[in-house]
Amino acid sequence: MTRRATETIFTTSPSIPKILRYLEWLFLSIIALRILFPILYPSFAYEGDIGDLLVFVVFGLLAILSFWFPIHRPLWQRRIYIWVEIGCLLSTRLWSHWGLDLLLYLIIVKSCFLLSQREVIFTTIASGTAWHMVLVQYFVTRFSQPIEVMQAEIEEFYAIPHPLAIFNLVLNNVSIFITASSLLILLGFTIISERKSRYREADLAREVEILAADLERTRIARDIHDSLGHTLTSLDVQLELAQRLYERKSDQVQQALNTSKMLAGQSVREVRRAVTTMREEAFDLNLALTRLIESLTSEPSSLTVETKIDLPKLPLQTSHQLYCIVKEGLENIRRHSQAQFITLQGQTSSTGVTLMLEDNGIGFDLTQSTAGFGLRGMRERAQLIGGSIQVNSTPGKGTCLQVTVPQ
């Protein structure tokens, strides 16, 4: 693992720091109760020393540190946080007879959320080794005392009233049980939460696959409609006309067949263009729109097109969708608007890219004619690239189509 990977900040649930904080407060409260009980109860005849003061200073420091969980801090700060707490616990074991072993387990749990797996293993081994070395030193010091001192301590213990002694032992065992159970419950909840997260991820993955399939079907339907729908409809009309003219022995059969041949060739070119556009990374939208206008004006018609296109290089998906929107708009104008003049403008600004297609045709009523698949397909294309479409039309006054895509 590289240093860069080691210093990665791990993400975790926002509730984890709060749970660990409450758990640490519970541990500190239980251990403080264990320590204060013999000190405050006169029957124990307990004589405090400097080690007890050190323990409460460490308690205060750990309580303050519990408010700060450096999950999103640099790695060196997370290391210092863990080892400062471990050092505090080692000092209590070295200079007092109160064992705070249970808090060490909590700190190791904390390290699992703050350090990498390798560092957690190292921290566990190093802290455990240091802890037991200090523990050995403590027992060596205790056993090196004169036998008379040890006998006096044993006699003092048995001089305590039995109910109090039993209560003290039960309190110690209950504190150990509560602490260990809390850690095990936390571990169990973590495992259950991770399992639920995996099931949730699997469900989301299946939903994404279904959604992707639906989107792909919608895209294919839209592309077929935009690229081939109009052309094949015209081809069908021309072939039907040729069939009727052939029955009448009309001289216009040849013209209808020529038109049909042209439409069939146009369909083939549309398919090739669609496939090429989806594969081509260097798709030039300005050039593609210019060629689209040229193909429209090259057909026998009275259409006049004025263009002013100056678009920047856009992502392939954005360019392709804008091209299809303009193509669909031009096809609708050619088929339905009876327009004589078309204006196509494309420009960019600080807010985004704007394409405007306007004609002087017959227009239509927006409240009655907006349900067509063509307009719906254009809106879907705009939504795919995060844009929007605004259509303004009045019967007898033409139509204006404006596409806006934010940058």
TrEMBL record:
It is an enzyme of class 2 (transferase). The keyword Transcription does not apply. PROSITE patterns: HIS_KIN (PS50109). Its EC number is 2.7.13.3. It catalyses: ATP + protein L-histidine = ADP + protein N-phospho-L-histidine. It comes from the Bacteria. Residues 223-407 form the Histidine kinase domain. Pfam families: HATPase_c, HisKA_3. Signal peptide: none annotated. Its cofactor is [4Fe-4S] cluster. GO terms for molecular function: 4 iron, 4 sulfur cluster binding; ATP binding; metal ion binding; phosphorelay sensor kinase activity; protein dimerization activity. The keyword Kinase applies. It is found in: Cytoplasm. One of its GO terms (cellular component) is cytoplasm. The chain crosses the membrane at residues 22-41, 53-71, 174-192. Keywords: 4Fe-4S, ATP-binding, Cytoplasm, Iron, Iron-sulfur, Kinase, Membrane, Metal-binding, Nucleotide-binding, Phosphoprotein, Transferase, Transmembrane, Transmembrane helix, Two-component regulatory system. Member of the two-component regulatory system NreB/NreC involved in the control of dissimilatory nitrate/nitrite reduction in response to oxygen. NreB functions as a direct oxygen sensor histidine kinase which is autophosphorylated, in the absence of oxygen, probably at the conserved histidine residue, and transfers its phosphate group probably to a conserved aspartate residue of NreC. NreB/NreC activates the expression of the nitrate (narGHJI) and nitrite (nir) reductase operons, as well as the putative nitrate transporter gene narT. This is Oxygen sensor histidine kinase NreB. It comes from Acaryochloris thomasi RCC1774. The lineage of its organism: Bacteria, Bacillati, Cyanobacteriota, Cyanophyceae, Acaryochloridales.
